Amino acid sequence: MRTIGETGFDATLRAIGTFDYKSPLWKIDGLRHLFEPKISYRYSPKAADGAAYIPTIDRDTFTTYMEPFSIADQRNVDEFSRIDTLRISLNNTLQTRSKSYCSRDLATLNFSTDYRFSHNPGIRPLSDLYTEATFSPTPWLQLEACQRYDFHQTEQSELNFSISIMDQKAWNLRFVSHYLRDNYQESLFNYSQRLNEVFDILTKLRYTSFQPTKLRLMPARRSDLDNLL
Fold it and tell me: What is the pTM of this model?
């Protein structure tokens, strides 16, 4: 048996700005900007205690996502390491009034990065910068983008984007593109048709281009990318 605890805090500032802008063409009835900077910290100096005696069944796996922050959110319970991490996030949301419900999100732009005061060998203290953006000028069109920028090599590590055209009650047409720095590119075309409240029909086409000699971890990355957007 082992007992692991952590301590930390979440500090958030919320600011709201409203603008009297209207556009009948795009069904915009006023604008509201939500600005939310957030600083979080987690500390668990003995998270690795007992790891030498535990079979590593639930272990760490490679992923391009931002790592879970708290112990309660991590699945690699048999391979914990010391936690001493500060996370900085900056979230922006632009909304307008909606006739069918309170508000509708027109656009979002979020930034996040971690600084690890303690880290394993081979891991840098400052993580990549993660950026997520969405743009939905109308209920039937949505654009999404997600990128990862490496401060240490001053280049883009990953870029993913999608374009969706939809009738939210009947069908969804979506094009997705994935790019990873080591010459890996993937394009997906998805179409889903709703038959009833239980069944849907899904059609998926995939095209992948990569150079195997430069990719040592691509099999794990590919499984992660399927659900990134």
Answer: 0.81
